[in-house]
Design a protein that fits this description.
Its EC number is 1.-.-.-. Keywords: Oxidoreductase. InterPro entries: Flavin_Rdtase-like_dom, NADH-dep_flavin_reductase, Split_barrel_FMN-bd. One of its GO terms (molecular function) is oxidoreductase activity. The chain has a domain of about 100 residues: Electron Transport, Fmn-binding Protein, Chain A (Pnp Oxidase, Chain A), CATH 2.30.110. It is globular. A hairpin with a 4-residue loop joins strand 4 and strand 5. With about 170 residues, the protein is mostly beta strands. It has a seven-stranded antiparallel β-sheet. Strands 1-11-12 form a three-stranded antiparallel β-sheet, with no helix packed on it. A two-stranded antiparallel ribbon has the order 7-8. It is built from three helices and twelve strands, in the order αβββββαβαββββββ.
Length: about 170
């Protein structure tokens, strides 16, 4: 007979419990971008990106309403979704850092379809038309339909796990 460790007593649900549990969940790293009405781009690093449906092609991501990018995303018709490679840890960190000049050098980007900022050198990207913004606590879940993209980048995906960027192992 093998002795099993005694499970810890469950903790009451709270923000720290949710963060602790999801630190154990490895997630792909994406950067979401949008163009403001004034032409200035915004963007942020997201690990909440999901494929929602194939027909029509829908994605979702979460964004905090306190984020500096939220006012532009709240008003944007379209957003860019960029899947980062394991060689882009610095780019992910730049777009995650508050107050950073996210689109200044060394970030390489161009205006893509619908005027959305498209980052260069990513594994894949989509431009998506926003179809809904669903309230979810202090966040919004953005649902968007893909209208254009390119899956042809090379490399392996960047992951986020235990509060750090990581790469896949063979």
């Amino acid at each position: 007979m093998t002795l099993q460790p005694t499970p810890a007593a469950p903790r009451q649900a709270a923000p720290e419990l949710l963060r602790s549990v999801f630190r154990r969940h490895a997630a792909g790293v994406a950067v979401i971008t949008a163009a403001g009405r004034d032409g200035r781009p915004v963007g942020f690093t997201a690990t909440s990106l999901n494929s929602v449906a194939a027909e029509p092609p829908l994605i979702s991501f979460g964004i905090g309403t306190g984020s500096s990018s939220w006012p532009v995303v709240a008003d944007a018709d379209c957003v860019g979704v960029h899947i980062l490679g394991d060689h882009q840890e610095a780019l992910a960190a730049t777009f995650a850092r508050s107050g950073a000049d996210r689109f200044g050098a060394p970030t390489r980007w161009r205006a893509g379809p619908e005027g959305v900022p498209v980052l260069d050198g990513v594994l894949a990207w989509l431009v998506c038309r926003v179809v809904a913004r669903v309230p979810a606590g202090d966040h919004r879940i953005v649902l968007a339909q893909a209208v254009a993209g390119d899956p042809a980048g090379e490399g392996r995906p960047l992951l986020y796990h235990q509060g750090r960027f990581n790469a896949l192992r063979d």
